[in-house]
Design brief:
Blueprint lengths: L2 E3 L4 E3 L1 E4 L2 E5 L5 E2 L1 H15 L4 E6 L5 E2 L1 H7 L2 H5 L1 E7 L3 H14 L5 E4 L2 H9 L9
Parallel strand pairs: 4-6, 5-7, 6-8, 8-9
Antiparallel strand pairs: 1-2, 3-4
Length: 133
């Protein structure tokens, strides 16, 4: 788990790859609204509110607060997100992603990947514009 002091307190680390922000949540089993607010603050601190693509590495996630779904559909978050790639391959993550997309799909494309390289390729090759998949 990559935890560091980001100036916002202790939070998961992140990487920047061009117009892509990658959040590594390896080791986290729960996505809370507080955690998602922290990740969003990291993005805004790094890029301002300019739209950017986001990769969320979540191989260990088992539960997600309902409010996280609402947060992802918030107009402010949507305006600053061009695409969103979720990386993990557990049955639970597939189920959670499917439920999210069924009930609270945001305006930006969202796609689940089993590996980081495929997620980055999708975002870099402009495939994200092809919609939710």
């Amino acid at each position: 788990m990559s935890i560091r002091d980001t100036g916002l307190g202790l939070a998961p680390g992140y990487e920047v790859d061009g117009d892509i922000i990658l959040h590594d949540l390896t080791g986290f089993s729960h996505l809370s609204l507080e955690l998602m607010h922290t990740l969003y603050k990291q993005r805004v601190r790094q890029r301002g509110k300019q739209p950017c693509a986001v990769v969320l590495l979540v191989p260990d996630v088992l539960t997600v607060d309902f409010e996280v779904q609402i947060h992802a559909s918030n107009p402010t978050v949507q305006a600053s997100t061009s695409a969103f790639a979720v990386v993990g391959d557990s049955f639970m993550l597939k189920h959670l992603t499917s439920m999210f997309l069924s009930y609270h799909a945001p305006d930006y494309p969202v796609r689940l990947f089993s590996d980081r390289a495929a997620a980055l390729a999708w975002l870099k090759e402009g495939k994200a514009g092809s919609g939710v998949g």
